[in-house]
Design brief:
single chain, mainly beta
Length: about 250
């Protein structure tokens, strides 16, 4: 089921992919060529956006009585990508990666209680959360280089700048996230509530992305990429999740 928080994002993804589909008007290179294959190693920072929850939340052995939101620290991501160049405008990629993100706080919209194992913790505003989300993800994407075989240096208003080795791209994709969320404890007002609970699922994700490639030489390419993803992970009173991922990578083209 697609929840309200993901509808707007999916509409944006449909728009991006519809725009990308124009690029397929160029003849596709259906004959496999080894030189069109590239491999990438990506590393960067992963940011999990705040997740809202309702007063009926029951999650990881804990039950809350008031609505609020959960916040997270920035995490790290590492992934590998296999790509194939279909024509001058279109390439496809499959990325498989791992990320780990720590919990930061739980914020109640009003004074309330969090209960686990028969023990209640009163939270008047903010509590610190000790816990970690560990996730593996896969994403199949279609990328478009809007200027085709040209680079941004070929644009008339930029032809005096040394940008001939840069190639921008945009795209979108779908995939999965297999995650496990372990919550150890929650602390408020000097009192710690032991939770020792966890939740896990494998959920659908959709993403839009943009970035810039830089040709180091004939075979190696450096890349900076930004990706925003929506994950259909809402459960037990929590909304779906959204992430922002910024990575740098090094690609080898055969």
């Amino acid at each position: 089921m697609v929840r309200k928080s993901g509808v707007g994002f999916l509409l944006s993804l449909v728009f991006v992919l519809s725009t990308c589909s124009v690029a397929f008007s160029n003849p596709l290179n259906l004959n496999f060529k080894k030189e069109n294959v590239y491999l990438s190693l990506d590393a960067g920072a992963m940011f999990l956006n705040d997740i809202d929850f309702g007063a009926d939340v029951t999650y990881g052995n804990a039950t809350g009585t008031v609505a609020g939101e959960v916040t997270f620290d920035a995490g790290a991501s590492i992934s590998g990508t296999v790509g194939y160049i279909l024509n001058n405008l279109v390439r496809t990629e499959f990325e498989f990666g791992h990320t780990k993100i720590d919990h930061a706080q739980v914020k109640f919209s009003a004074s309330g209680t969090l209960t686990s194992g028969g023990t209640a913790l009163t939270i008047t505003d903010v509590a610190e959360v000790n816990g970690t989300i560990d996730a593996y993800y896969g994403l199949a994407s279609v990328l478009v280089t809007p200027f085709g075989p040209r680079t941004i240096n070929d644009l008339p208003f930029l032809d005096l700048l040394p940008l001939d080795k840069f190639t921008p791209f945009i795209g979108g994709g779908i995939g999965f996230v297999d995650w496990e969320d372990k919550i150890n404890s929650v602390t408020a007002g000097g009192t710690t509530l032991t939770v020792d609970g966890k939740e896990s699922e494998t959920d659908f994700q959709a993403a839009i992305l943009a970035g810039l490639d830089f040709d180091l030489n004939q075979n190696f390419i450096a890349r900076v990429k930004y990706r925003h993803a929506w994950v259909d992970s809402g459960m037990k009173g929590l909304d779906d999740s959204e992430t922002d991922n910024i990575t740098g990578s090094l690609s080898y083209r055969f």
